[in-house]
Every structure is written in structure tokens, then in C-alpha cells.
Amino acid sequence: MKISVVIPTYNRNLLVRRAIDSVLAQRLQPDEIIVVDDGSDDDTVASLQGYKRRITLIVQKNSGVSAARNRGIAAARGAWIAFLDSDDTWHPQKLLLQRDLHRKTPGLRWSHTGERWIRNGREIRQKRDHAKPEGDAFVENLPFCKIAPSSVLIHRSLFTEAGCFDTALPVCEDYDLWLRFLRCAPVGLVDKPLVTKYAGHSQLSFMGYMMDYYRIIALMKQLPDEAVKEEIARKNEILKRGAQKHANPGMARFCESVARKLREFDTL
Q: pLDDT digit string (tens) for 199-232?
């Protein structure tokens, strides 16, 4: 089982080194570690020179996290791909326990794990809604993304079948791709917190109601599924209220176009 680890990074000099160190501390070592620097303008690239015998460093023009992950997928030599965001870390047994799960479950093409959430040095208690899905979890994953990019281990065949990350999405790109994967294959779960996800530093963020704008774009690819239509309608109402609250006529027009599209499906 040859595993390639892909770590995208942008202006995270200290954090990316912490992420790499957590991979190097794995009880099961991957076959390669690919770090894709997405056009950092700090000293990230220079600071990674000390790892040059242990990682493959790819430097590209700033193009976003999806393009960086896709670049890593294209460069990877392993049949299995694991992602690690540069502000997260893995626990030492992460790859080992996922490898064991796949050995015990022939034909399982992807899996994920539980995670710890740390914000400003304090652990955040996760809500029941954030319980990790397993198996045929397409409908369960419709409300929001419950599969963390830093937790997945994916067989390359899924990218061939369902595609890679959509570079047009600045957020919810993982939600979009996991829905496409879940159409093709059930997901396995190691129900242990094997990833630590950090928050409180500089991160890409959007207003809550704006997240639904990108989720709707992802969901539109999954029509005409009835559960998808219901979820789009629910999110569209939330987005519509947000557009009214923030006096955003462009978003209001988007909401009306979505509603019109749903009505068209209802008449089919």
C-alpha cells in the first residue's frame, strides 16, 4: 500500500513545518511527502530547505488550495493519497490505523478519521451534528461537510472516476468532492481522533450564509436527486434571508435563479 501525502501551503512558514513533523512522526511512514507551496510571499520556501531530503517541494503561482491539492495529486506516485492541511497535524497512529482498516475491508476505496478541534489553545467540544459519517453517507453529508480533508486516505481510482477538486470554489471544495466520491463509493471510518485541527490564526473565512452559496453550487451538480433538491431549497431560503439582511441584490437574483431551476425539475 504505497501512500503519498499531499500538503498544500500558503504563507504558513511555522505551521507547515509542524504539519510535516507530524507526518515524519507517523508509526507507518508514507512513501512520499509532497508539499505544494501556492505562491507564498513569506519565507516558507526557504524554511523548507531543511526538509529537502525528506519531502518533494513543488512551488506554483498562487492559484488556491484546490489547485495546490490537484497539483499534488498529479505529482503523486502512490496508489493512495492522503491530504494534510498545513495548519493541522496528525497523531502518530493515523496512517497505521487507516492502513489496517483498508486491509480488513477489501474494496474500500477511501476512509477518514475523527479529529480534535483546537481554537486559541483550547479544545472545542464537537456537537452531535458533527458526528463522523460511515458507509453510504451521501445524504448524511448534504447539510455540511463532515469529512475533514486532513483525515482522508483515498485510492487514486476515485479521482479518475469522480474528478479532482473544483478550482472555481474558494471554499466548500472538499464538500463538493466528497459528495462526488460518495456517489461512487462508501467511506470507511476510523472512529478515533487522529487529526488535530487548529483555528484562531489567519484562515480563509466567509460569513455563514455565504457558505451556503458555495454549497448550493456544489449541490446543483447532484440534481435531480430528491434529497438534494430538498437541501438546496432549504439552503436557498437561508441564503435569500441573508441577501435581504445584507441588501445584496446580486445574491437575491442568484436565489431566484436557483428557485426557478428547482421548479423546472419539479415539472419534469
A: 854 444 455 668 999 999 999 999 999 999 999 9
- Same domain? For 41 and 104 the reply is yes
Domain CATH for 110: 3.90.550.10
Residue type, 222: Q
Helix axes 226-245, 249-266, angle to 10 degrees: 160
pLDDT at 205 (0 to 100): 45
Residue 171: alpha-carbon gap to chain centroid: 9
Same domain for 49 and 125, yes or no, is: yes
pTM of the model: 0.94
Work out whether the CA dihedral 158, 115, 176, 229 comes out positive or negative. positive
Query: Which three cell numbers, joined as nine digits, stand for 54?
Result: 525528506
As a whole number of angstroms, the distance between CA 6 and CA 29 comes to: 14
**CA-CA distance, 137 to 131, in Å (whole number)?**
12
Distance in angstroms (rounded) separating the CA atoms of residues 52 and 38 = 17
Q: Is the dihedral of CA 166, 170, 174, 178 positive or negative?
A: negative
Query: Which of 157, 177, 199 is the last residue in one of the domains?
Result: 199
Q: Examine the pLDDT at 156 and tell me if it is beyond 60.
A: yes
Give the bridge partners for 175, in sequence order: none
Buried b (16+ CB within 10 A) or exposed e, 21-60: ebbeebeeebebbbbbbbbbeeebbeebeebeeebbbbee
Domain boundary among 199, 218, 252: 199
Cα 203 versus chain centre, distance: 14
